[in-house]
Specification:
- The protein has 285 residues and is an alpha/beta fold.
- It has helices at 2-17, 46-58, 69-77, 92-95, 138-146, 162-170, 181-190, 220-233, 235-243, 248-263, 268-283, and strands at residues 22-27, 36-37, 43-44, 61-66, 83-84, 98-100, 105-114, 130-134, 155-159, 176-180, 195-207, 210-212.
- The protein starts with a helix and ends with a helix.
């Protein structure tokens, strides 16, 4: 009997060893349509769904943690989280301390102003203007490198999140916000008649998911395979169709209706198709 007990214990340990690996994904979940917290408290967005879908396709689990943007790379370096998924532009400076996936998105910066301000892309950035950006972002870096360092005496106001900058812009406390194009377009939809994009700054930035330098856990090949599968099956295009160009409340309602297909049925391809179709359906009502 003792021999049988030992055999059972060994078998159970073996099964435990087969449990799926779990990786911690860090994201600053305040930047729609890439990541945000829904009205019901759910974490959703393009980046986060890509992470969930790849995890299913590649056979591992993830836990998503909401972390300040400028704390994500330090947390990856320190081994506190495994993956950064938060619209990170691939830069030479960042690539010195972390490793990036291949690019998954291309973006430009925009100059966002109040609709009644009368400002354009030139006058919004004149000396004396107050310009907002999120701390640690390429939007903030652009202001520092291309305006302040060149002698254009704008006042750069840094925020912990871009929504905070948008709120100050709406309240008239700053004159403009510099951020990526898709989130700026989302902000214009979110506050109709109150905001407009005064101009686009062609920066051609490429976004990537990031991991610790040297990829010690071998995560990047799984992300690459997962992105390839999503593109080959059309799931990637369905995610893009669902998340970009639509009101947040419509996306949230569609996500709530479809997410069990991903989390319970574990079918990322059908989930993406459901999400795109449901967004289209709700948008027409």
């Amino acid at each position: 009997m003792r021999t049988l007990g030992v055999a059972i214990a060994v078998a159970l340990l073996g099964l435990a060893g087969l449990a799926a690996e779990k990786f911690i994904v860090g994201s600053d979940i305040a930047w729609p349509p890439f990541e945000w917290v829904s009205a019901k408290g759910d974490y959703l967005g393009f980046d986060l769904d890509v992470m969930r879908m790849i995890a299913v396709l590649e056979g591992y689990e993830i836990e998503i943690q909401d972390i300040a943007f400028d704390s994500i790379i330090p947390a990856v370096i320190a081994g506190k989280i495994d993956i950064g998924a938060s619209g990170f532009t691939i830069t030479a400076e960042r690539a010195q301390v972390v490793d990036f996936s291949s690019p998954y998105w291309v973006s430009d910066q925009t100059v966002l102003v109040r609709a009644d301000s009368g400002l354009n892309i030139i006058t919004a950035l004149l000396p004396g203007r107050k310009v907002g950006a999120q701390r640690g972002t390429t939007g903030a870096f652009w202001v520092e490198d291309n305006l302040i360092a060149q002698g254009v005496a704008v006042q750069l106001i840094l925020y912990e999140t871009y929504p905070e900058a948008i709120m100050d812009l709406l309240a008239g406390r700053i004159d403009a916000v510099i951020q990526d194009q898709a989130p700026s377009e989302q902000a214009v939809r979110q506050y109709p008649g109150k905001l407009l994009i005064a101009g686009i700054i062609k920066t051609y930035e490429e976004f990537g998911f990031l991991v610790a330098k040297g990829d010690p856990k071998g995560i990047l090949p799984r992300i690459e395979r997962g992105m390839k599968k999503l593109r080959e099956t059309g799931a990637w295009d369905n995610l893009v169709a669902a998340y970009f160009g639509n009101p947040l409340d419509v996306i949230e309602a569609a996500w709530e209706a479809c997410i069990p297909i991903l989390t319970v049925e574990r079918d990322p391809i059908r989930y993406a198709a459901c999400l795109a179709a449901k967004v289209q359906e709700l948008s027409q009502k």
